[in-house]
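Researcher: Re-running this chain for the archive, since the previous output was lost when a drive failed. Same request as before.
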Amino acid sequence: MTTDNKQNLIGLDRGELVVALAAIGEKPFRAKQLWHWIYFQGETDFANMTTIAKTMQGKLAEHFVVGRPNISECQTSKDTSRKWLFKFSDGNEAETVFIPEEDRGALCLSSQVGCTLTCTFCHTGTQTLVRNLTPEEIVGQLMVARDTYDEWPSPKEARMLSNIVLMGMGEPLFNYDNVAKAVKIIMDGDGISISKRRITLSTSGVVPEIRKCGAELGVNLAISLHAVSDELRDRIMPINKKYPLKELLQACREYPGASNARRITFEYIMLKGVNDSPADAHQLVRMIKGIPAKFNLIPFNKWPGAEFESSDSKTIARFSEILNDGGYSAPIRVPRGRDILAACGQLRSASERQRKSRLKARIAAGIEDDDHSAA
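Model: Regenerated structure tokens:
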């Protein structure tokens, strides 16, 4: 992405940064200096990069920017969760959520504008895929969050933004190359320096890319499972027709680095009368035998038009107890950010409705649509 014909340096890896500098006649060692200022210090103004000569600062400013995505809206929940709606240079938008705890927190990044999947329980999945996000746009989400929480230079300890989860809009493994590049930038020890042990990638089950992710990135893996039979999973998660449970679970068994210390997380949304019986819980225990695993039980977050209801608290507690008795941790996720539509499966819904309302009003007024901010 460029700004006023200037190239944005965010999202470039080390090799690309060297190439960009060579194009303006600068030596490779400058890339290391810039990397430090951009990703460790979080600096956006070349004039403040004090280890770089003033003449060089001016030259950089002529050709480059260190940009951030534009913030269309920022909301804070009554439970202190925060949601940003980012608008990119082509007018498309995506959302990012931060879920803070007492002394740490998880930042949920989006990987696509919209979603290519059509999971029937997910409101985000009702919005069509517009395009993949670029490494610049993925890393940019984190840069804005760090700006907001004043986490520059990169802290070694006591980070509020301690964990990254690729669980926002989109299926990360359908945008693997861009996601992988962004994750490698985020993990780089001389910059943002977030360990792979603190990064979790969530997937609905793109089996070939799970293996690739394990071999190349080695981050924590979370699987959106949600069913114990192919018949049910085919219905609520159509991707299962391409990568059925047997193939998916085999990929999990083979995932590099999976151990009792680094267990695979199986996300399981609790749908009343659909997948929440004691028999389902017992089948889950049998299914994942031999996989270092834990469960994350998610009460369904209701949205307008949804065909499902959330299981009641007693049913969820019993489900969790059966998994515990089977030897697996199975905490029940406490919904966060529901009041700002930032909970699981709700991302982008509000902004999409607002866009459609604006469009309807413009059409009613006879005004040609020029709002291309979303699909």
